[in-house]
């Protein structure tokens, strides 16, 4: 009953976030559409400008290196203020042709846009590291809920799937019972995938060492000695067939410059399975990861983020994610109705 409230919030926010990029651009089209021309600023210039404005960063991610030429660059800023009550994500949108900052802020602030605020809410309910742990635990409780529901309704699974169970509309309780049973069965596989991948990606929040690290503010950034543009060229030369989807820019010692993406003949499900890392101090390739050469579980794990977000699919797939993402919330509502009736009868 307690987790049902939060599952409803996770489902609603997750369904909206399936179309985050499309909605963000639609709501902020005038702001985020840039006019090509006049010479593009180098990635290295933007990297050093970001670090100058935010001198204590744990890292930076360029989120849309594959965006059209008339789209602003989107950067995610990884921060740490040393306080557990905050989940320290920031963002910047930059015009690559004149270097102008179009928007900037933390994801706790609605000034960065409601969708960015909602993204962090989906991760941690805007409750910082405790909220992140809470969302992780709810992933487990939902998996347990699906398993126990399967046990309870095991005799109905095939009947529901074959449309052999008739709805009874005589009372609110009968309607809730039929909806709960049918939604639970039809959404069973999707719910397991959705909540297991969410749990797996946030499992780091259960490590005591992570909590300790979040109580120490990020030190002053240590900028890369090598040019970011040169490292990008080197990384692409090392893996020329890679279609780059994400670029990580290091700001602390021990972290490498990194590009990741997919190949032409690979599904977008594996967007995290190929990468090239470059040492930011000497500009040399440190590591090349090819999905086909990785162990089986690592290849499976590479699909977790796309499976959780629906980012691997086109519009019809995303629409399915929107609808299916609402089902856990509906289960919590119908479950609450059934629970309240049993209490009254008891």
UniProtKB/TrEMBL annotation:
<protein>
    <submittedName>
        <fullName>PepSY-associated TM helix domain-containing protein</fullName>
    </submittedName>
</protein>
<feature type="transmembrane region" description="Helical">
    <location>
        <begin position="319"/>
        <end position="339"/>
    </location>
</feature>
<keyword id="KW-0812">Transmembrane</keyword>
<feature type="transmembrane region" description="Helical">
    <location>
        <begin position="178"/>
        <end position="201"/>
    </location>
</feature>
<feature type="transmembrane region" description="Helical">
    <location>
        <begin position="132"/>
        <end position="157"/>
    </location>
</feature>
<keyword id="KW-1133">Transmembrane helix</keyword>
<keyword id="KW-0472">Membrane</keyword>
<dbReference type="InterPro" id="IPR005625">
    <property type="entry name" value="PepSY-ass_TM"/>
</dbReference>
<dbReference type="Pfam" id="PF03929">
    <property type="entry name" value="PepSY_TM"/>
</dbReference>
């Amino acid at each position: 009953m307690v987790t049902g409230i939060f599952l409803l919030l996770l489902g609603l926010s997750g369904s909206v976030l399936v179309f985050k990029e499309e909605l963000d651009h639609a709501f902020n089209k005038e702001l985020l559409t840039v006019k090509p021309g006049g010479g593009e600023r180098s990635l290295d210039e933007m990297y050093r400008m970001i670090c100058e404005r935010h001198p204590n960063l744990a890292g930076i991610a360029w989120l849309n290196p594959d965006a059209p030429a008339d789209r602003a660059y989107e950067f995610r800023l990884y921060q740490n203020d040393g306080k557990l009550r905050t989940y320290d994500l920031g963002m910047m949108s930059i015009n690559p042709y004149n270097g102008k900052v179009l928007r900037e802020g933390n994801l706790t602030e609605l000034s960065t846009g409601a969708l960015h605020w909602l993204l962090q809410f989906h991760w941690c309910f805007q409750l910082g590291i405790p909220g992140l742990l809470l969302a992780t635990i709810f992933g487990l409780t939902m998996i347990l809920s699906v398993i126990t529901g399967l046990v309870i309704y095991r005799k109905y699974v095939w009947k529901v799937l074959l449309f052999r169970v008739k709805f009874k509309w005589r009372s609110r309780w009968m309607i809730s019972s039929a909806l709960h049973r049918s939604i639970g069965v039809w959404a069973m596989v999707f719910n397991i995938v959705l909540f297991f991948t969410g749990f797996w990606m946030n499992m780091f929040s259960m490590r005591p060492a992570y909590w300790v690290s979040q109580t120490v503010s990020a030190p002053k950034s240590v900028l890369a000695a090598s040019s970011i543009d040169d490292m990008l060229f080197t990384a692409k030369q090392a893996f020329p067939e890679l279609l780059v989807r994400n670029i990580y820019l290091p700001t602390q010692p021990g972290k490498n410059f990194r590009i990741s993406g997919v190949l032409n003949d690979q599904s977008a499900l594996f967007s995290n399975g190929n990468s090239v890392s470059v040492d930011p101090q000497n500009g040399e390739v440190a590591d090349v990861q090819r999905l086909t050469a990785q162990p089986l579980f690592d290849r499976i794990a590479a699909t977790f983020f796309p499976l959780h977000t629906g980012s691997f699919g086109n519009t019809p797939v995303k629409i399915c994610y929107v609808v299916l993402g609402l089902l856990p919330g509906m289960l919590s509502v119908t479950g609450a109705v059934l629970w309240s009736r049993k209490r009254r009868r008891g």
